[in-house]
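# nightly structure sweep
# worker-07 picked up a monomer target from the shared queue
# config: single-sequence mode, recycle default, output format = structure tokens
# input follows
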Amino acid sequence: MAYAASAHAWAATIARLIMKSRLIVTKYMRLPVTSFELPASSCRLVCVVSLLALTACSGTPPSDAVAQIPPPPDVAAAPADATRTSTNMATKVIAAGTGSRHPRPNSTVTVHYTGWTTGGRTFDSSVARGEPSTFRLDKVISGWTEGLQMMVEGEKRRFWIPARLAYEGVPGRPQGTLVFDIELIRIVS
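# output follows
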């Protein structure tokens, strides 16, 4: 949905630029309009190529472009032994950490993570990219801000994050409860 809206706006901008270029050529360069005519098929081709380039180069790739990492067996729902927070987020420690410090709400952290929908589709993964990611906790979804504060360096946890603590209503983002495996590698600041 977001891609289509952005692409439509971009195609409209391209069309305006083509028309403006035509005006400049005819008015200021005193060339006849016929010397700068573009057939309708060429305009359509420019718009289609521009749309494809925009889709290929913008923002988060479509989820089907993300390498699919096998989901955990409990991806569909949190198990009975998961801990629930006051916000109804479920969490379970997968591997204990070695550190003693917890991040603050505005800390910068380095993590490895994979995110799945409850249907088992991977939508994002630093593991698949082969490189940890560094984030400020006040710049991520609130489920991450809350969850990472429970962790210590070296710890790996699984989180079942309700939609309202994730991307609820944000176009182009996965909807519903999201499941993340997060390894807190380092608290940067």
